[in-house]
Amino acid sequence: MKILMVLALPAVRTLGAARIQVELADSLRARGHEVDFLALPDVYPLPPRNSVDAILRAFPRASLPQLKRMAPSYDVIDAVEGCVTANKATLGFDGVLVGRSIGLRTAYERWRADAYRRFPAMRGRLLGRIPHKVRRRYRLWEAHQSRAHADGFFALNAAEGDELGTVMGAARVRTLPLALRDDHRAALAGAAQSRSPDAEPHVVFLGTWDARKGCYDFPRIVRALQREVPGVRFTFLGTKASSEQVLLELGLESNSHVHVVPHFAPEALPEMLSVATAGVFPSYAEGFGFAILEQLAAGIPVVAYDAPGPHDILAPLDDRLLVKLGDIDALTRTLVAAVHGRLISPEACVAHAGRFRWDAIALDTTRAYSAWGAPS
Q: How many angstroms separate the first and last alpha carbons of the chain?
């Protein structure tokens, strides 16, 4: 089978959203399929300068000439939601056109609308709101077009699958999780083995520092946990925000028990997780949650809000790890229990993470392609 992956990002493993298709492509190739990419740098070298430019230079429009030239050579076009808005006739393509969620745009937009009401700081300046709102609406239109023209669509979690099945029909939707590469999972498991049984309480957050991931909740989380667990340490990994910004928004001018790492090399993650005894993930909207899976693979129980994605990962392991969205008190109580080892064991976390394998997901992916009309 010859497959073209389409995404409006550089096709690199260091970007969480792009990582989905890059690692899946590796597993598909290992099964004997040919996989190529049409990605952001192939279409234009410089990103849009602002919201208006983003609409004028939208990826589906800018990539269309190249996609039309390439499409006839492939059996499957597998595109991230919103990246292909043309129908197959326009593309001159008689293969299988597939859409793929990396976090469903409609679900994220519902979260954003609610967050704007609760967090006025997110709204920005009045003059900047109009082009930003137009761009958001345009991205939703792109998403709806990509769904309308797709022969099939991959959802990341059960809630997404239900939503897409309602509008597209269940036969056109498959819900598939994400996974970890075997070598990465093994390195993370090594971190679990190297952790001392009497390690000091140490909580890690792995993710960007933004409202969707819970940055407005963290000041209360950190203060409450410091009261309940004296001497507890926090590490914030991959924030993309500076240590100064994170500490300022936490209300801490400096704190030897709070460490911020804005960026890190992927191969450094196992060692950085080796000191952690619990993880926290207060995300309000998530497609899946690579960060949760990586921490589980390192033997770290993760306490999270019960959002789609985290629910699909953690509920089968131990539903005590999930708390109601926005319930900071419940999150803190559960995190205290996790820090003290009163919930799931590190060994159970590692074993559960081992269920999420790219080779199995690649097989299910090709079966879905075939069900939607691709050659076996």
A: 7
Residues of the chain with pLDDT under 70: 45-56, 123-131
At the top level of CATH, which class does the domain 182-353 belong to?
A: alpha beta
Name the pairing type of β-strands 233-237 and 322-323. unpaired
Angle between helices 126-149 and 158-168 (to 10 degrees): 70
Q: What is the pLDDT of residue 48?
A: 65
What per-residue confidence (pLDDT) applies to 162?
Answer: 97
Task: Answer whether 309's CB lies under 8 Å from 282's CB.
Answer: no
List of residues 6+ apart from 367 with CB closer than 8 A: none
Predicted confidence at residue 161, as pLDDT, reads 97
Quick: pLDDT tens for 228-266: 999 999 999 999 999 999 999 999 877 779 999 999 998
What pLDDT is recorded for position 153?
Answer: 98
**What pTM, to 2 d.p., does this model score?**
0.92
Among 29, 33, 25, 28, smallest CA distance to 5 is for 25
Compute CA distances 290 → 20, 213, 245, 321, 340, whole Å. 9, 13, 24, 16, 24
- Structural domain boundaries in the chain: 2-179+357-371, 182-353
Do the Cβ atoms of 306 and 323 come closer than 8 Å?
Answer: yes
The fourth-level CATH superfamily of domain 2-179+357-371 is Glycogen Phosphorylase B; (3.40.50.2000)
Query: What is the four-CA torsion angle of 12, 18, 19, 23, rounded to 10 degrees?
Result: -90
What the block records as the tokens of 179 is 């996974």
Ramachandran angles phi, psi of 100, nearest 5°:
-145, 130
Tens-digit pLDDT profile for residues 221-230? 999 999 999 9
